[in-house]
Specification:
Blueprint lengths: L4 H5 L3 H4 L1 H4 L3 E6 L2 H9 L8 E3 L11 E2 L1 H4 L9 H7 L4 E3 L3 H18 L2 E6 L2 E5 L9 H15 L4 E6 L2 H10 L5 E3 L5 H4 L13 H9 L5 H4 L4 H8 L1 H10 L17 E11 L2 H21 L2 E2 L2 E8 L4 E7 L7 H12 L7 E9 L2 E2 L13
Parallel strand pairs: 2-4, 7-8
Antiparallel strand pairs: 1-6, 1-7, 2-3, 5-6, 9-13, 10-14, 11-12, 11-13
Helix pairs in contact: 7-8, 13-14, 15-16
The chain binds magnesium ion (MG).
């Protein structure tokens, strides 16, 4: 059994990643956004258990539940019929997507006053890198101003988190919902990460959490009871590396300005160079899943795919293909990627990467609601 990540890595976080601790990232997340917009437009709904999704007699799912409705156990993605059983007195409304987009635009215009680097995660959630902007002012005071602007100009509340990276900023914004502001300072990271449940880390879904619990990993500190090489074997190198870093509060992902985005990509450098097609296929499948996930998170569609191959001698090759309709699943991305790979490779491969291009906004299915049957 190993001690702490600090000892394993041979230095404190500050010593290892000074540049990553200097960043100031704000994560802003609107509180029960769709419900808040409905209340904004119809104040008589205020204080009522409110379910945005559709009729309880339909097969619709809950998009957003107001905090009053959440007290009855109603959650997003639950069937509206189930929500009705939990709280028959709740008010059920159909989502008004266009209206939410309108308000969302106003929110992002407010963000734009405070940073040039804004990454939109969804209509009601975004990251701002304010490292440059907050030279004379603390990032937390900028976050406070953003919250105030949203409240004063739009009339709804947001929760904000401030931290040196995206993962921590998101954790922070979730700490004191609704209308909260939480700051995670670099010096407090090593104190609170060990007791954090791994499933709280953005990116660890129920399936991964279940897999990790099989290996006795439920808290971040549990990660370091395993040797890194053992985690490589159990989880695969990509997840193992990712978990090893994130479990200590390290997240390198930059705030990506979505508006400048020309492609979405993912790549993997293998622990040892690969030659056999089966191993390459396996890796390619993982990369395809990752790139598809990134694309979905950004609510984008892609119509071109590029495969990047870096060989053992570091020479590089790229191959591309175009589609007439957008990719829909990670399997589809994988299939096309494999066709590109199967054109042949000349020597052992050290890295494979996929990037999706010709991007467009996914308009029609931002809110996935089934057509009601009433
Ligand atoms: Mg939200």
């Amino acid at each position: 059994m190993l001690e702490s990540p600090k000892q394993i890595r041979g230095g404190t976080l500050k010593e290892i990643h000074p540049e990553f601790l200097k960043r100031k990232i704000i994560h802003v997340d609107m509180d029960a956004f769709f419900a808040a917009v409905e209340i904004l437009d119809n104040p008589s709904l205020k204080g009522l258990p409110l379910v945005i999704g559709g009729s309880p007699q339909s097969r619709c799912v809950v998009c957003t539940a107001s905090y009053e409705a959440r007290k009855f156990g109603i959650r997003s993605a639950m069937a509206c019929s189930q929500a009705y059983r939990l709280c028959p007195d709740a008010v059920f409304l159909m989502p008004r997507h266009r209206r939410y987009v309108e308000i969302s635009k106003e929110i992002f215009l407010i963000f734009a006053r405070y940073s040039k680097k804004i990454e939109s995660v969804s209509l009601d959630e975004g990251y701002l890198d304010v490292t440059e902007e907050c030279q004379g002012e603390s990032a937390s005071s900028l976050a406070k101003k953003i919250k105030e602007d949203i409240w004063n100009e739009i009339g709804i509340t947001a929760s904000a988190g401030v931290a040196p990276n995206k993962m921590l900023a998101k954790l922070a914004s979730e700490k004191q919902k609704p209308d909260g502001l939480t700051v995670i300072r670099p010096e407090s990271i090593s104190a609170f990460m060990p007791t954090l449940p791994v499933k709280k880390i953005n990116g660890i879904g129920p399936v991964t959490a279940e897999k990790l619990s099989k290996y006795g990993i439920s808290l971040c500190s549990d990660i370091y009871k395993h040797r890194k090489m053992d985690l490589y074997e159990k989880l695969g190198p990509r997840l193992a590396e990712w978990l090893w870093d994130h479990g200590q509060g390290i997240c390198r992902a930059p705030v990506e300005n979505n508006h400048d985005r020309k492609s979405v990509g993912s790549e993997a450098t293998f622990p040892k160079d690969l030659t056999d097609l089966d191993s390459l296929k396996k890796e390619l499948q993982e990369i395809a899943q990752d790139v598809h996930e990134r694309l979905s998170k950004k609510r984008l569609l892609a119509m071109s795919l590029t495969l990047k191959i870096k060989y053992a001698d570091f020479s590089l090759e790229t191959r591309s293909t175009r589609l007439s309709t957008p990719f829909t699943t990670s399997e589809e991305i994988f299939r096309y990627a494999l066709l590109l790979l199967e054109r042949g490779y000349k020597q052992p491969i050290r890295l494979l990467g996929l990037s999706l291009g010709r991007l467009q906004d996914r308009k029609s299915d931002v809110i996935q609601v089934q057509v009601p049957l009433f």
